[in-house]
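Could you join me in thinking about how sequence relates to backbone shape in a protein? To get us started, please write out a protein record for me. Would you write everything just below, so we can both look at the same thing?
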Amino acid sequence: MSSKNSRLRVALVALVVAAAGLAVAGPAAAATQQAPAAVSSALPEQAPAILTGFVDLPTSPLPADSRKHKFTVTYRNDSSVDQTVAPQLLVESPDAGPFLDPSDVKVERRTATGCWEAVQLGSQTGTLYTDLSTAQRTLHAGDTLTEQYRLTVLDPDAEGTVHPRVGLYG
């Protein structure tokens, strides 16, 4: 076997392994994309926070009645150090389908001023999700995170589960 063929096979195997890893990662990995850090010559560059796990909160059936429904994501930092966290709302399709599309629902987030702002949803294999990277914040020791979402189902035939959770970073 020539070394050219050997290198080609190694490259092909590496590509297949990388693709398989992405396929297995699921919506959690898709929702953790980090925005590039801004470059500044005045301050040393900080390492980006790494997602280490999730705290799953109680789920509920997707209310397909076209009314606005509120969902609250709450998490208390019981540790003695500051913690980077990110609230997230997942809207999961039934395992057997049909898969939800972002146009099937409208999700809004309550701002600090009390107004509702639209939240863009990502989608992967039938799971709709709010972006973790834009929701990251520092939760001081002893503080509680409370994030309110409002969900409206626009497709009366939509079925699924609403799954609030909090991403934890280390």
